Amino acid sequence: MTAMRLIAQFIVIAALFAGVAALSDWPTYGQIPKNSGVVMLTFVHGADRKGECRRLTPEEIARLAPNMRRVQDCPRGRRPIYVELDVDGRSVYRADLPPTGIAGDGPSRVYQRFVLPAGKHDVAVRMRDTARADGFDHEGRERVELAADQMFVIDYRPESGSFIFR
Amino acid sequence: MNAIRKVLRIGFELIECPFDRLFGPSLNPLAQLGALGFFFFWVVAVSGIYLFIFFDTGIDRAYQSVEYISRDQWFHAGVMRSFHRYASDLMVVMVVVHLLREFSLDHYRGVRWFSWFTGLPIIWLLYASGITGYWLVWDKLAQFVAIVSSELLDWLPIFGEPIARNFIATGTLTSRFFSLMVFMHVAVPLFLLFIIWVHILRISRPKVNPPRALALMSLGALLAVSIWKPALSQGAADLARVPNDVGLDWLYLPLYPLTKLWGNGAVWAFLGAFSLMIALMPWLPPLRRAKAAQVDLDHCNGCARCAEDCPYEAIKMVGRSDNLPFPTEAEVNPSLCVSCGICVGSCPSSTPFRRSSDLKTGIDLPEYSLRQLRERVMDTAGNLSGPGRVLVLACEHGAAAGRIGDTVVLPCVAMAPPSLIDFILSRDLADGVVVAGCAESACYNRLGIQWTEQRFATERDPYLRARVPRERIATVWASALAVSKAEAKIAEFAARVAAMPPKKLRSPLPVSAPSPLPKTLETERGAT
Fold first, then answer.
1. What angle do CA B513, B522, B384 make, to 5 degrees?
2. Can you give the pTM of this predicted structure?
């Protein structure tokens, strides 16, 4: 095997490897347009149960196994959560969020991103998690100075019962 | 499916031909894809262990430690990081090209379904290994990979709390997360190695190491590329910012941008459909299989040459079941046998010189016996005329398979025992013999060409006897698409044979011991 042939073989292999190396970080990928940011609405929260708890009668309690006796019978399933998000007075998201879990007893969850141009925006979020038909149980409003590539998160804290903006 | 295979085959031929000329069939990287995949796995493993010495799993320290590796210690740890990254990428390339090439060669149906099928989890595990590795760096790309991967996983209804919520703000992520990722980045490749082992279980003499020269050149090229373009981080992850304009690894993450275009559900549907298609391909349609080879114990002395030569591990030696004074006998597993006939060519009983009325051998193909082969050779030889009578023994997968008149087609050229060549020339059935098989770097039955060449060179039992004039034998290794090149070689050989003086050999001749291969043995290479 001549030296020239060895060199040619090496050059071919190195060129192939260089192509692979180039593809390992090029071309770049932009998931949002230039000079824009993301407002993300995300939370995990369980709405009220579908029905009221009912107090069991002494006979009903006696019929239960001794280790499974309880005073109240509560329906397992939860209500869906209704949520709305407005940006600059325009509705961008409205949804009934169903409860998770096979029996529908888990929390509802939302994970939605909205790409907005950088700049000032008025953000308003409303949520209903009870049996009421009108109005909302929780509301939040914020004026956001959204920078390019900024991730602005709207979360909900069940402990305080309020939305947080960060 | 045939049309797709043919188009792919033509594409591969266009690359394989110049590669064969530059590297030679033994070093052609396209004929070593599986072995190179293994090689890069070990490069990744060794470089990964080295990097782990310097890596820190803390939430902030992960990025800092990788920066220390890449900047301060670039001359050893940084180079290792590049080795780790680029060898991983090369594994993906090897796997994808290997898959396409085996498909183009129809190497995925019949008994080969097992290797094809077990290749599917290899693809999944390879990608899982790479993706978990990208998380560990915890730079902007890692943040992008973490978010998109989590969103993909969250689409599946198996997690209560969305995993992606871990990456919405600083403080939601803990160092424990990196410990988990390190564990996964070690455990998944270990499982990958196990599946690779399963993948080659049914292959006889699998190529798990590339030729040393190719391995050294690959290491050298990796070093050169690592110095030219070191693998670097893309700035620390910042959960308060969108990881935009990331330098994506398009070999590992080509589907990630599609999650934005198609949605997560569509990407999962695509992955499911792709996996299902790959899994079912061996039966779309299934390969028609000839009857498996059968052992004739009256003619089997348990020499084990057939078991040694079988490329499919279809023959094993077991204790003798008759009263003949031999310790073992050959046993064929019909579910693994492809009826290539290589075992027939390896059996010392397979000699057309035998005078028994019904030619028998120790192991034979029910649908294409040695007796039928001898008859076809004699019939075909009867049609030859002129000064340069050349008989062609052609592989049914090679360039000469479509020839008529002077050609006997076999499932594999290694089915022809060397004594058949001796028989043809010594009985004056022809003035020359061409053995025409598949392309050297793409033998359909993997070992047919290798065994034939070694038998002719008296390096492998059964030998081609020394008395057989090598100048009257030519081998032509050319793919089914290289017909004109093969024809030109055969015509050139026929002209040479015609110019030779008449043969002096006539059977029977005194038996002589095998001798080293004379320089006159012609090997028509490069016809691919």
1. 95
2. 0.89
